[in-house]
Amino acid sequence: MRSQLERVGRGSPSAASATLDVVDAQREKQLAAEAAAALVEDGMSVGLGTGTTVALLLPALAARGLSLRCVATSLQTERRAREFGLRVESFNGIDRLDVAIDGADQIAPDRWLVKGGGAAHTREKVVAAAADRFVVIASSDKLVARIRPPVPLELLSFGLAATLRRLEPARLRDVPPSPDGNPIADYLGDVRDPAELAARLDGTAGLVEHGLFPPALVTDVIVAGEVL
User: Which residues of the chain have pLDDT under 50?
Assistant: First the structure.
């Protein structure tokens, strides 16, 4: 069902629920995480994203008692997954995944995503691209009428100032580096056309990866337990 995504596209508010409180958001994330965990089958290879919604996925996944091979997109996710008894392997020895499950910072009606609030979007995109099925889980406040700034960027340290100049308007984010040790910045310009901006960013030397995820990557969107 795409009705909720379509309603957001027609409305002016950025999210389906601009007033969603913390308790409701947490409950919606929990429902989405449980619904995604139910899609995983015994023997699957699973890509695990990074963030608060994935943090709720891990215990839901572990509770199913399945034999899984998991790949984590960050050390934080890897540590938590192991704490719940999930088997986490290096991605170097796996060339494809059955499913990847991750959250999103923004979800547009046409299924363009913005990811990277946790500075792991490069690994998250690599994992999503390697998966036969990419499932996005979120609370309803992540639904937006259209993609807006900021768009996270992972950059090389080499030539950083020159790269930032080519990416204007962009600024470095005062956060720890990416899981691979690279600086994180945000593109702050208007996002009139996500595909056009993604192409521009893809062609910028010094940019490792950006947080725009195209609809072609997205198989399922689950918001508060409902598949949209």
Answer: 1, 7-17
How far apart (Å, rounded) are the C-alpha atoms in residues 176 and 186? 14
Q: Which of 28, 34, 78, 124 is catalytic?
A: 124
How many whole angstroms separate alpha carbon 177 and alpha carbon 154? 9
Same domain, 86 and 28: yes
CATH code of the domain containing 202: 3.30.70.260
Check whether residue 167 and residue 98 sit in a common domain: no
Answer yes or no: do 68 and 165 share one domain.
no
41 is catalytic: no
> How far apart are the C-alpha atoms of 170 and 201, rounded to whole Å?
12
Q: Which domain holds residue 204?
A: 151-210
Residue 86, CA distances (Å) to 1, 53, 62, 122 in order: 31, 17, 6, 23
Bridging pattern class, strands 45-48 and 97-102: parallel
**pTM for this entry:** 0.92
Same domain, 121 and 205: no
